[in-house]
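Troubleshooting: if your tokenizer reports a length mismatch, compare your output against this known-good record of 250 residues.
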Amino acid sequence: MQPKRIASTTREIYNKLRTGLAMGVYLPGEPLREVHLADTLGVSRTPIREAIMLLEHEGFVEHRPRAGAYVRVVSRNEREALYEMRETLECYAVEKSIEYITKSDLDRLDILCKKMHEMAIKVRETEGTITDTVHRETIQIDIEFHMTIIRCCANPWVLKTVNDLHLMRCVFGDNKLHNIEEMSLNRWALTWRDHLRITQALRVGDAAKAKFHMHDHLRRSTVDALQRYDRHCRSLEAQKATVPWPNLND
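Known-good structure output:
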């Protein structure tokens, strides 16, 4: 009975840490201290250590010699590889989903498209003012739209992988880089248009058109995300350049 209880506790801690990663509680480059986490989550260090090992196996955490576990920081090449994998899997999924998608699924996609449109209207009516709440809600609508399609392809391996990829976008800063100042009605309008086109193609059973629109949508999203990352890196370099050298004569 004891191993089962420990496994259950480890799974619970693992899920809590994953949620914390998605919500930005643990940021890239930050340490995951076993003692602190054990005190915070009210458990012993054993399930903490086991949960961290699971996250390390999934690529969210890295172990640094003589330093411990840290939330991973990924390079531009790694980001690009993640986006390319997402493109490949989601294009496969939207084409495959034609075989399994139901009227209820299509109605759900319609509702999500409508919600995205309503968010854009709300922002337009407030003269482009985008609050943090609106920003988070928009991201959640976007993720739910894509995951609804993924679930329809009836492939649990694709579902697990894409779900991890969406989490990686949150953990490794994609949604944080996609800050409120860079949001625009034009970007939302394009996303809403793409989602609507994908949904319409699925409703009429046109797999080729659904795949075409999904690829176009994700390719633009990839280019946009990498451009944001590049701007972020340039901004950090500019900040470093403006830091004055210490006066050694003082």
